[in-house]
Design goal:
homodimer; 499 residues; alpha+beta; BirA Bifunctional Protein, domain 2; Rossmann fold; Translation Initiation Factor IF3; five-stranded mixed β-sheet; globular
Chain lengths: 499, 499
Amino acid sequence: MADKIQTQGITIKKEENFSEWYEQVTMKCGLVDKRLEYSRGFYGYPPWGTMILRSMETLFEKELELRSHLPIRTPTAMPIALLEKEQEHLSGFAPEIWKITHGHGGKKLEYPKALRPTGEAVMYPYFHYWIENYKDLPFKVFETRPSFRAERENAIFPLLRTCEFFWIEAHTVQLDNKHADKQVKEDMEVFDLIAKGKLAMPFMLLKRPEWDKFSGADYTCAYDTPLPDGKVSQIGTTHNLGTHFSRAFDVRYTDNNNEQKFCYQTSFGPGVGKILGMLAAVHGDDNGLILPPDLAPIQFVIVPIYKEDSKEKVTAFAKKAANKLKSFRLKFDDREGYTPGWKFNEWEMKGVPFRVEIGPKDVEKNQVILVSRLDRKKTVVEIKDITDTVLQGMLSELTKEMYSKAEKKFKIDKTDNYKDIIKKIDAGTHLVEIPFCNTEKCSEKLKEKTIKVRGIQLFAHGEKTVVECEQKSAEKAKGKKCAVCGKEAKVMSFVARQY
Amino acid sequence: MADKIQTQGITIKKEENFSEWYEQVTMKCGLVDKRLEYSRGFYGYPPWGTMILRSMETLFEKELELRSHLPIRTPTAMPIALLEKEQEHLSGFAPEIWKITHGHGGKKLEYPKALRPTGEAVMYPYFHYWIENYKDLPFKVFETRPSFRAERENAIFPLLRTCEFFWIEAHTVQLDNKHADKQVKEDMEVFDLIAKGKLAMPFMLLKRPEWDKFSGADYTCAYDTPLPDGKVSQIGTTHNLGTHFSRAFDVRYTDNNNEQKFCYQTSFGPGVGKILGMLAAVHGDDNGLILPPDLAPIQFVIVPIYKEDSKEKVTAFAKKAANKLKSFRLKFDDREGYTPGWKFNEWEMKGVPFRVEIGPKDVEKNQVILVSRLDRKKTVVEIKDITDTVLQGMLSELTKEMYSKAEKKFKIDKTDNYKDIIKKIDAGTHLVEIPFCNTEKCSEKLKEKTIKVRGIQLFAHGEKTVVECEQKSAEKAKGKKCAVCGKEAKVMSFVARQY
């Protein structure tokens, strides 16, 4: 469908004003509609944006299901008292809740409800019932549901920070800490497989420092990805929750000696809405979106080019070509009343990986022209050479090119010197590695410069556990001085400006 | 996973106490969990229930997508003012809204929000932007999202009437009324294909009388299905909305003469959560659920039966059989620590269409035993005869048997006599056809007996349009007297007690 503002195209250059470019791209390419002022933070998602979101959800869900996760659904609204119960035990749930005060017949509720800010306090009271004994473990589930935060008006930014946001929460219940640690590793593998392998999205996996972990977690691992403006953004987290929540919500199992034990829990949250926003930001260019082929609702769009006298011939040939592309997500754009140029422009904006051009000359030569969205490179392919293998090869190649291009822009550097940190970050370096004393005090000092300690890197050098990574980071810091206070460094830590 | 109360099995007979049987079946078979008293009306859905719900959503979504519907997402919360705007134009939106009064930092909202009670007022302000000219039409979208009603405490019943309910809303925007009528017919075809063909669910399609139509509709068609207790329940609706909403929300298009026109709209809402409840009610028996094969998350469950000395042999053979069943949704239940009898019971409760038993004797005879969930009929199949065609045949046959069994229980009758109506309905007849004057006054009189006028039947005799159906119904009523007031009958109408 058309869109009143869409046809104007992107009028801002990404390099010149990233933030306005982002607003235009997300709106004009049909990812999100924020024109209803009264609905700030609660957006509408037109078909194209919704199709991409669903496609991303499916990527994650499939990998989770392959690893024995099952889907569940739990309520959208929950008693505020329950959130407070969680707070008693765990301290500090976000106070940004949407409060529901009135119910049937306009009557004031005795126990007000909240729109769920996150899944733990909604799901775990059910886990109390659903888990009985050791045979039920591991219990692995996921829920694909929006959550809600009452964000500050001026903090709202489509897809990246909204009042209603889409994510998948995968939660597991385990026998012991060893199994929980193993699950954390599995979550990371899933994220790596999809983000790097399918979404062409570089990221760094960091263990957050103690003062920045999720308050109910033993430890928090997070996926940080680069933004064109030099900041990084967290697009997902994996937590080892230990027994903090199982104690708060009484999630126990009977072991094989008939003893009751508290379960160990993990949670994994890829922020699918946020990842979509980041994809637009990282891969997009001055013509609009560029979608990685595994995500794109349409991978190839065929645009026949003809005048009245060649219409029949070109259409017939294009249909023959379409038949050869049928294993892929294909759109045959034979809409009347639009010029080929208009169609080129529309599908370029929407980020379709390959355009297939077919004109009268191509019919004569028995060929089609494949135009890559990334660099508009044209590949002429004879119709007899169009095979699934060739096309799959082109899609895979495109994903790799996109990843490599994005990775080159992910600027990571290191320094031992406080002033250098600030200089590098001001110059657009995303992550700077520093020797660090690992104290909250030094973290606060960095915060004054709006720089945040992101944590230590995980699994960059073939370590097998989070503990090994911590040891390696400590070893690497040995003998060095903290880049902030000059005292003895305890770890090598990464710092960044965050979105 | 196990469930503390699940293992006890169903202890109530369906014939003896339908309502308590229904509660047990939905809870113990893992469709819904209502044990959290504070969460009344906002339920948790364990993996099995969620998998079935998702499977049903997918059935509808696929058929909609085949007919060019695209997915969209619109906000969960909307300003109450917007609902009131709709009311101004259309009168009488349900006042049962959940009211959100507080947002960021606990601050009272200047413009309170509501959890969406239905899609129109949330979606159509976006349609205003998304539709520009005649080339954009038909615009066909769907949204798979829960909606919310602040139901009376005592009206709440898991799946059938809840505060958070799952449905799919398919909305279309059309050039004119002719196209809207055609769309209504298409929606009905989709519903028929899925409900009758895949869910084995009999229903009658009725056009609601004027006083019982959706307030913003030109006319309302609804799908009524039988309950074991003699009532009927509405499991979906299709509305021709005319231009009522497009005028209220300013949804216009520019025609090919460059003139602005109000669009015609339709909406179609299969209540997937409610349909699931009805499926449990209609097909289930004293052992639990019976799932139609197209819906079942598991179509065949293999349960190997062995003692220690035959374990290896049976398992190897069962794996061979599993390989022959791999085109189907298959579970190989080789869990340790559970007896075959326990497993039989669990999968019977959960409604898996076929159990595949394999014991040492079957290995010797190179065969498996397929046990149908519907009647426990055993079919012995030699391993060489297990083909996709044979298995698909068994699944199709089972669906047909389920439909035929359910249809036999759908009691439809007719009478010209007022006292007979009540007698028949008290005796458990679901729908009674009567000659009817088609006035609200007579409808009110029936209501005193808790009987409701459901409307006239659509498309039972090869008619092509709703208008033709109305004509046929009027012809059939000619010369007859209204069964309620004795005055001239205008139509043949169906009446029923409703859930």
